Amino acid sequence: REAHARGDIIGGAFTTAWPFLAGAAIGWIALRAWRSPLVLWPSGVGIWIGAVIVGMLLRAATGQTVVLAFVIVALISLGVFLLGYRAVTALV
User: Fold this and answer.
1) What is the pTM of this model?
2) What local confidence, expressed as pLDDT, does residue 4 receive?
3) Of 70, 8, 83, which is closest to residue 40 (Cα–Cα)?
4) What is the pLDDT of residue 9?
5) Domain region containing 56
6) 78-86 contacts: CB < 8 A, separation 24 or more?
7) Total domain count, the chain
8) Torsion of the alpha carbons at 22, 20, 18 and 4, rounded to the nearest 10
9) pLDDT(65) > 90
10) C-alpha neighbours within 13 Å on the C-beta side of residue 9
């Protein structure tokens, strides 16, 4: 956010994050991921895809920016954060 010359870092971070948190929660509930929260498939992938798709739809519905570059960055960063630790757990 600092690099894009936007103030209010805490409020801005929440504004950016809430659609993805809501999407992850919807994916978590839809897949009943609490039964096997650390598995990569289907829990991890479903939560990841839910976070991205629902997150982008909520961003668009609330007038926030949804451009291809942002979608790609969100896919990659959410993939690392939501799948990375599950992949490590699977290897261990």
Assistant:
1) 0.86
2) 56
3) 83
4) 79
5) 2-91
6) 78/20, 78/48, 78/51, 78/52, 79/48, 82/24, 82/44, 82/47, 82/48, 82/51, 83/40, 83/44, 83/45, 83/48, 85/38, 86/38, 86/39, 86/40, 86/43, 86/44
7) 1
8) -170
9) no
10) 3
AA identity, residue 69: A
Q: Retrieve residue 90's tokens.
A: 């699977």
Give 10-53 pLDDT, tens digit per residue: 888 888 899 999 999 999 999 999 999 999 999 999 999 999 99
Amino acid at 77: S
What's the one-letter identity of residue 16? T
| Residue whose token pair is 């961003």 | 59
